[in-house]
Specification:
Strand content of chain A: 15-25%
Strand content of chain B: 25-35%
Shape of chain B: elongated
Oligomer: heterodimer
Number of strands of chain A: 6
Structural class of chain B: alpha+beta
Distance between the termini of chain B: 51 Å
Strand order of the largest sheet of chain A: 3-2-6-5-4
Number of helices of chain B: 6
């Protein structure tokens, strides 16, 4: 693996979750997600049970990758904000850092201005937390689950 | 880039199915989607053209379930195989942990296989990845067709590095599981070698320093303090916003206790006036903080009946004294928007520990009404 995995400890997740909850409280949005550019949902808070967050994260990352490519074509480094306006629900995405996107889903209980303002503030705080996480350099012996995962795949495919 | 989440006990990684157009990449995912039990996979998201050619990517999340305390999630992607979609192919490769190269065994497709493999290396280089360092396998697909290369020739032309390779017929599923299993195993083997974890005390110090630096500042001139609502439940000064996450999420703190049915004694102030049966239950309402319902019928003075049907919000935990004994309750009230400002809420206290019983009180036109578990005296639990 050419890149080390992202390791999220309980403390760092608690910090991230606290920032997401604060964002939801301030902005009155429905839910907030932290999505990495690989398409994975790192953290989510709010009303998320009716949303397929795996698929949404993958699509958000894909959309942001597209907008990044578009930005380069017009001479920009990045488009840091991507906003989707619907009839009832809207999605606001903001780049936290090169690898992470803060996604907020909201409806007419709040306004785009509120969401944008608090997302920007939260993105800055999240960026600091994520840079701390990524700069951690300690190693340990790691998790050995290869055989069990292989057996589990056999079970799932009915081998 | 794999993610190890110690808080949620989750490991996730990304596998990309790469190869020339119409080689069988999407078919692999379709087979996996059809074969896996529903609880072990999500929906297959396909961004495709009208002719069912992959336009951007296909995505299928897999969940292997819990292994050694961790949920193992594998996200499968395919790329569009046609040459002119190279820009989008590159985007999907970001953060890849493992690759299944799906080669088309037909003789007239070998050039496309070779070009696609070269293209894979170039696209990985753009991210400073090296194919030799990534877990990857080759799947020689369409082995059921005529006019295909023998496996030996396929190996000579495509597998110079002698990575694991598998014959497959993706439409029937042959070889699909083997290739997926091989690349997954290699990813997890690498993960074992490179996993990093800071000791907890060092993380605590790091978090403490971040806390000092990352307080969210709000200009009080722009956002004045909200007017305090008298009907809001009293909270300890030390209570953290994190503990109120149930108000802004699908979390259901009472799901292991409810439903609770009980016979109640009904009191007007401290005078018993009747009895009835009430049921406190969950409402499966999405995207709402109104999660509970109290329903039932009470009989007053043996003649009159009245029904109760109230939707409730969870407000938090309370400690109250009953007959000199401290008891822990879950506190619920009706939504404030459904009653007059500053009016007394319809309140329910559900016992947290021990017997599944609840108490309630509300103000009617006749005065204070309370209900207790049948046979118990009226108690004053109000804020």
């Amino acid at each position: 693996m050419t890149r080390k995995p992202l390791v999220l400890t309980e403390e760092s997740m608690a910090k991230i979750n606290k920032l997401l909850i604060h964002l939801l409280k301030q902005s009155d949005a429905k839910c907030a997600m932290l999505v990495d550019q690989d398409g994975k949902c790192v953290a989510k808070k709010g009303f998320t049970k009716t949303i397929d967050t795996d698929a949404l994260s993958a699509l958000i990352a894909g959309a942001f990758s597209s907008t990044r490519a578009m930005a380069k074509l017009v001479g920009e480094k990045d488009f840091s904000v991507l906003f989707h306006q619907g009839n009832k629900d809207h999605i606001h995405n903001i780049l936290v850092d090169d690898d992470t996107i803060l996604t907020v889903i909201f409806d007419d209980r709040t306004t785009i201005g509120m969401v944008r303002l608090y997302s920007k503030e939260s993105a800055q705080s999240l960026k600091d937390v994520l840079s701390q996480i990524r700069s951690s350099t300690k190693k340990d012996k790691g998790l050995d689950i290869v055989q069990e995962a292989s057996d589990r795949l056999d079970d799932l495919f009915g081998a | 880039m794999a993610t190890i989440n110690y808080a949620q006990k989750e490991i996730s990684c990304k596998i990309v199915y790469y190869g020339p157009g119409l080689g069988g990449k999407t078919t692999n995912l379709q087979y996996i989607h059809q074969t896996l039990p529903a609880e072990n996979r999500g929906e297959l998201v396909s961004l495709a053209t009208h002719q069912d050619r992959t336009l951007f990517f296909d995505f299928l999340p897999m969940d292997l379930g819990e292994i050694k305390g961790f949920n193992i999630k594998i996200h499968l992607y395919t790329v569009p195989g046609q040459v002119y979609y190279n820009a989008t192919r590159k985007l999907v490769l970001r953060g890849v942990d493992g690759i299944v190269f799906v080669a088309d065994s037909q003789r007239d497709r070998m050039d496309e296989n070779i070009k696609s493999l070269e293209n894979l290396k170039e696209n990985l280089n753009e991210y400073n990845y090296n194919l030799d360092d990534l877990p990857w396998v080759i799947q020689y697909n369409k082995r059921d067709l005529d006019n295909i290369f023998p496996i030996g020739d396929m190996e000579t032309l495509l597998n110079k590095k002698r990575v694991q390779s598998y014959e497959s017929i993706a439409v029937t599923g042959k070889g699909v599981k083997a290739a997926l299993k091989a690349v997954s195993s290699r990813i997890l083997e690498k993960l074992k070698a490179v996993t990093e974890e800071a000791p907890m005390e060092e993380v605590a110090l790091a978090v403490e320093s971040v806390e000092k630096e990352t307080k969210i500042q709000v200009n009080p001139m722009v956002f004045p303090e909200p007017i305090a609502k008298p009907s809001a439940p009293s909270m300890s000064a030390k209570e953290d916003i994190g503990e109120k996450s149930y108000l802004f999420s699908d979390e259901n703190p009472l799901e292991k206790i409810l439903p609770v049915e009980q016979m109640c004694s009904l009191y007007w102030w401290k005078i018993q006036i009747g009895s009835g049966e009430l049921k406190l239950m969950d409402i499966l309402a999405a995207n709402s903080r109104i999660k509970y319902r109290l329903k039932g019928e009470m009989k007053i003075l043996a003649f009159f009946r009245f029904s109760i049907d109230k939707k409730l919000i969870y407000r938090g935990k309370r400690i109250k004294s009953i007959m000199g004994e401290q008891k822990h309750f879950f506190y619920l009230t009706d939504p404030p928007e459904g009653r007059a400002p500053l009016s007394e809420p319809f309140s329910v206290w559900l016992n947290q520990i021990g017997n599944k019983v609840f108490y309630l009180s509300f103000r009617s036109t006749l005065g204070k009404i309370r209900a207790t578990p049948f046979g118990k005296e009226a108690v004053n639990l109000e804020e």
